[in-house]
Every structure is written in structure tokens, then in C-alpha cells.
Amino acid sequence: MNQPLLEVRDLDKVFQVGRATVQALRQVSLTLERGECHAVVGESGSGKSTLANLVLGLTQPSTGSLLFNGKTLPARRPLALRRAIQLVQQNPLSALNRARTIGASLRLPLDVHDIGNKRERLTRVGGLLREVGLDPSLAGRLPASLSGGQRQRVAIARALACAPALLVLDEPTSALDVLVQARMLQLLQAVKQQHGLTYLFITHDLAVVRSIADRVTVLEHGRVVETGTVAEVFAAPREPYTRRLLAAVPVVSAADAALRDRLRAESAGVMEN
Ligand code: ADP
Ligand code: MG
């Protein structure tokens, strides 16, 4: 059966800020097919992170529903559902506990979800680090002693630790410089393939969308204004807003852009230097 992994139906999210209300999402619907990378793009404040938080169950919709594997996601998520949907956020330093070693951070989800025995967990930590292109000896280090790229790799490893089905990636490469960004995208692509994952990939960077996503949904002031395959939307954007976004793809310099394109085109080499 070809049931979508995630269905978002008519989500409204209203925040109360003092006496004022902010409508962050209006009648947002989208479908994530199994194995696809579905990008959500829009300007700052368009509701992207609010959508991510709703999918993760960190906040509840005002109205509307979310279905995972065809079943309505309950307000209080049981452990199995929390395990199935994992987050990779923009800033890994705020995502990781600074006082905890990398190894301890990776062991935590294994403990919480009761995966393997003590010895297996230890082996799994090393395996996770290797999988994201890091040396297992980093397990003894603290986040502060790692580079931004290495920390983001740890965050990806932690998200993978309990074998999820869906990764919600909220601007996962936005805090990284161009070279590191390109390698991170290669890693995310490899990991997705390896584990048969589905991605909800939030970004404001349309160059990233082009390089990694299958389909894209465009949000403007909390509304879906366009959705389709990346090829369709990029070739013939229907909405003026999408056309403006596309025109605003940030190109740092011609040399940078060429370098980035070359790196993104390289298929091999996901190791972090
Ligand atoms: P994006 O991630 O696209 O930049 P957000 O989802 O963070 O956008 O925000 C969408 C709108 O909702 C913004 O106007 C923001 O100020 C508002 N918003 C988001 N979270 C909250 C909150 N917890 N309380 C009040 N307003 C919020
Ligand atoms: Mg955001």
C-alpha cells in the first residue's frame, strides 16, 4: 500500500502574545511520501519552524490534524512515536548539552529508548560516529572542542541513534560556511539513502533545495502558496512570491558559487576534515 508517511491537514496555529494574536500557520496541508526529501521554504517568519514544532509534537495545532502512517498523531506522543520522528536543528551547540561528552549525548537516546545492552550501546556510539564521518575517539570530547561542522555531524548521529523514520531538519546547514555546508548535504543524502529515511527539510536557501529535495512547499505568511516537484517549481514558479524567492537565491560570489556547485556535484567523500 502506498500510504504517505506523514499527512498534514489544514493546520492552523495561533499564538497569543499578550493581547495580540499571531497566526503563524493558516490551513497548511502537505504530504510526505515515504523516502522523499520534502523541502519547506519561505522567508523568515513564514511559519517554517512552527510547522516543524507541530510535526515533532513540541506544540499543538489550534485546529487541523497530523497523520503518521495513516494514524492521527496524539497530543501526548508515546515513546515509539517520539523515537520515529527526530529533529536536526540549525545550531547544534544549543541542541547538545555542553556539559555532556559526545559519547554520553549519543548514548542518551539509546538509554531512553532502551536499545541494546550496555556493551552494544558502546559499540553503537562508535558506529554512529563513524557513519557521520567522525573518528570514534571524539566520544570522549565535549561539544565546545569540536568545529561547527563536527558538532552538526554529532547532532545527525544522535538523530539517527534510535533508528527513526522521519527527520525534521530545520535549517541544518544554515549556520555552516559554504564548504562545510556542501559536505553536510552530501552526508545527509548518504544517510537518507542508507537508512531509507524521509526528510522534512526546512530551509530558506533555494540552492540547498535544488541540490537535495524532491518536492518543495512554499510558505508565505503561514500559507502554502505553491507545492510541487523541485523541477516543476524551479522551472515554472506559478506564484509571484516564489519567483521573488527564486530571484533572491543568495550567490556569495561567482567563485564561491562555482565551488559550491562543484562540491555538491561530487558524489564521493563525506568525511569531515
Ligand atoms: P520561520 O521559522 O519561518 O522564520 P516561525 O515559525 O518561527 O517562522 O514564526 C512564524 C510566526 O509565528 C512569526 O511571526 C513568529 O513571531 C511567530 N511565533 C513563532 N513561535 C511563537 C511563539 N512561541 N509565540 C509567539 N509567536 C510565535
Ligand atoms: Mg525558523
Write a compact overview of the structure shown:
This protein is α/β, with parallel strands linked by helices and 273 residues long.
Structure overview:
- By secondary structure, this protein is of the alpha/beta class.
- It has helices spanning 48-56, 79-84, 92-95, 102-112, 118-131, 148-160, 178-195, 206-212, 230-235, 240-247, 254-265, and strands spanning 6-17, 20-32, 37-41, 63-68, 71-72, 85-88, 166-170, 198-202, 215-220, 223-229.
- The strands form two sheets. A six-stranded mixed beta sheet has the order 6-7-8-3-9-10, sandwiched between helices.
- A hairpin with a 2-residue loop joins strand 9 and strand 10 (223-229).
- The longest helix is centred in the last third of the chain and has 18 residues, at 178-195.
- The termini are far apart.
- Mean pLDDT is 90; it is low at 267-273.
- The structure holds adenosine-5'-diphosphate and magnesium ion.
- Adenosine-5'-diphosphate binds next to strand 1, strand 2 and helix 1.
- Residues 15, 17, 22, 24, 42, 44-50 line the site of adenosine-5'-diphosphate (ADP).
